[in-house]
TrEMBL record:
Bacitracin is thought to be involved in the inhibition of peptidoglycan synthesis by sequestering undecaprenyl diphosphate, thereby reducing the pool of lipid carrier available. Belongs to the UppP family. It holds the Pfam family BacA. It is found in: Cell membrane. InterPro entries: UppP. This is Undecaprenyl-diphosphatase.
Length: 271
């Protein structure tokens, strides 16, 4: 394994972990870093696969932080209607993305993984996040485990917008949950819960589709990216809910607009 490739994997893994649970689009950031900053591995197919597979590190960071709460919910399933409602709700919210992602997997990877689309989606999503952050929305739900089943399903439909790189999976679920009556903290927390099956499904599907093309050096790069995503993801998961409760989402909205605008400028200058 070359040192330069290992360093790229480390940087990209760290970037993945820091951006995965923020409403800024981790996939969009990785794609722009590879295309504009030259941090790719000069293999378009592997770049796209790498971006998905290192998400496992972020997933495990999330599971570690929420292990006790998830265990409590699991133990309560036989006796608690709320625990059963929440578990079913997560599965219902996950279903639209699972179906559409499987059907359109090739189109998403071959057509939508485009830096121009990413930049536009980042900017548009940033302005949407700014608007939603200040709207006087009616906040009816402050517990991510107690939404109605119909609300879980609607959030799952909105999550499908995140198949466009740059939209952001967490951004789509957070905006959707807030628009449907969740407060900011509950909306952000449900984006965590929904991330678990969604990201795990994307990881498993991409690994199944591409495992025959990966070699030993690829596995080493993915391992480095995985470890970096785990550490940085752990940092974000532990601090995001507190930050959002105090400051809202404006910081992330302006970051999206800044990155998207800088990306468009770079594409205009360098192509």
């Amino acid at each position: 394994m070359e040192l330069a490739a290992a360093l790229k994997a480390l940087i990209l893994g760290t970037l993945e972990g820091f951006t995965e649970y923020l409403p800024v689009s981790s996939t969009g950031h990785l794609l722009l870093a590879e295309h504009i900053l030259g941090l790719g591995f000069h293999d378009d197919k592997f770049d796209k696969t790498f971006a998905v597979l290192i998400q496992l590190g972020s997933i495990l960071a999330l599971l570690l932080v929420y292990f006790r709460r998830l265990l409590t919910i699991f133990i309560a399933l036989p006796t608690s209607p709320q625990a059963r409602n929440f578990t079913l709700g997560v599965l219902i919210a996950f279903l639209p993305a699972a179906v559409i992602g499987a059907v359109l997997h090739g189109f998403i990877k071959d057509v939508l993984f485009n830096p121009l689309i990413v930049c536009v989606a980042l900017i548009v999503g940033g302005f949407i996040l700014l608007v939603v952050d200040v709207l006087p929305l009616r906040q009816r739900y402050d517990d991510a485990t107690a939404f109605p089943l119909s609300m879980y399903f609607k959030i799952g439909l909105l999550q499908c917008l995140a198949m466009i790189p740059g939209v952001s999976r967490s951004g789509a679920t957070i905006v959707g949950a807030m628009a449907l009556g969740a407060d900011k903290r509950a909306a952000a927390e449900f984006s965590f819960f929904l991330a678990m099956p969604t990201m795990a499904g994307a990881f498993a599907y991409d690994l199944f589709k591409n495992y025959k093309t990966l070699d030993t050096s690829d596995a080493g790069l993915i391992a480095i990216g995985f470890a970096a995503a785990f550490v940085s993801g752990l940092f974000v998961v532990k601090g995001l809910l507190t930050f959002v409760s105090r400051h809202g989402f404006a910081t992330f909205a302006w970051w999206r607009i800044l990155v998207g605008s800088a990306g468009l400028a770079a594409l205009w200058v360098w192509g």
